[in-house]
Amino acid sequence: MELLTLIGLIVVVYFAVYVLLLPMIDCDLGLWYADNFGRRLDEFKGKVVWITGASSGIGEFLAVEMAKHGAKLVLTARSVLNLERVKGRCLEAGCTIEDILLLPCDITDTAKHEEMFARVVTHFGKLNILVNNAGRSQRAVWETIEPEVDRELFDLNVFSVVSLSRLAVKYFLKVGKGHLVATSSLAGVIGAPFSGSYTASKHALHGYYRSLRTEKLGKRISVTLICPGPVFSNFLANCFTGKHGELFGQDVAPSDRRMTTARCAYLSAVAIINKLDEAWVGMFPVVPITYLLVFFPTLSKWIAQFVGTKEIMKLRDSRVVMDSS
Questions:
Q1: Tens of pLDDT, residues 111-136
Q2: Phi, psi values for residue 132, rounded to 5°
Q3: What are 31-63's pLDDT values in tens digits?
Q4: How do strand 178-183 and strand 72-76 relate by DSSP bridges?
Q5: Which stretches are transmembrane (predicted)?
Q6: What is d(CA 137, CA 217) in angstroms, rounded to the nearest whole number?
Q7: How far, in Å, CA of 151 to CA of 163, rounded?
Q8: What pLDDT was estimated at residue 289?
Q9: CB 235 within 8 A of CB 136
């Protein structure tokens, strides 16, 4: 059998299997395979994991998930009170007091990153995994977004991540190995409506991390991008809008078709321990729609025009109806 024919058959089988599994799984096929046949979460035991944005949402639940499996945790966020609450949950999950370091900080204050990094390494003697989870979303009409919002969102979602990641890469190169993780979004691989600055920030993050992954091939530095779809959390209340200093201030509707934060954190942990390059996470039909948008853009545009932007928006927020007129 010719090589090209064999490759073609493999591709056909891959997509056939994926189509059959689509209604039954809540992630991409690679992550599903890792969850069922890959490395177990118990391999987190003894690893030092630094999670930013750990005071709520995915960061909080990821910390608890890793605490269950014996990881040593560094938790960073602005709110000391919320970090203490998450610390309590981690202790209940089986972590010991010696295995948790709280490192409160505004992550956008990049001048403090070197001091923070040194403190982590001094406290635990090493760092195995850095999870850049801090970030905020956005709901705004594209042409109404003020430039100050673009800059503020990029400072948080991109430049703070890159700053801390560069310190981690230098350290990992020095010690011979390490793992960088960023919580991105499916908005980082498609053009999500009514989130122009946020979508751009996640695309920028993908560019930085994919470039790094290719540049450091063979250097034993793993790079993982986790891309959740809609998840139940308090993110909408703290969303950016198009106006500087304004919060979106709405709650997620209980009727929304969203993945639970606990499930998202579990799948994120699976992606991390298996060192996947990229992981897509979301309730059906979010992931297959993402595949359609990425691999069949012209067809996707026709479908979007037929369905309408507002109906597409309801896949993200059932109660949030943006007006672009």
A1: 999 999 999 999 999 999 999 999 99
A2: -85, 95
A3: 999 999 999 999 999 999 999 999 999 999 999
A4: unpaired
A5: 6-25
A6: 31
A7: 15
A8: 85
A9: yes
* Arithmetic mean of pLDDT over the chain: 92
Structural element, H or E, at residue 9? helix 3-21
Nearest-angstrom CA–CA distance, 35 and 50: 22
pLDDT digits (tens, 9 = 90+) for 160-173: 999 999 999 999 99
Domains of the chain (ranges; CATH) run 27-285 (3.40.50.720)
Q: Are 201 and 145 in contact (CB under 8 A)?
A: no
> Is residue 135 within 8 Å of 53, Cβ to Cβ?
yes
Q: pLDDT band for position 249 (50/70/90)? A: confident
Q: Is the peptide bond before 285 cis (omega within 30 degrees of 0)?
A: yes
Task: Tell me what the mean pLDDT of segment 231-235 comes to.
Answer: 83
3-state DSSP helix/strand/coil % of the chain, to nearest 5: 55, 15, 35
- Strand 100-102 relative to strand 221-228, pairing: unpaired
Q: Which of 18, 198, 208, 209 is catalytic?
A: 198
Say how many C-beta atoms besides its own lie within 10 A of residue 135's C-beta: 26
Closest C-alpha to 248, from 138, 128, 96: 138
Residue 198 known to be catalytic = yes
What's the rounded mean pLDDT across residues 207-217?
97
- The 3-state DSSP class for residue 112 equals helix
Q: Are 136 and 157 in contact (CB under 8 A)?
A: yes
Max CA pair span of the chain: 63
**CA 154, CA 196: separation in Å to the nearest integer?**
11
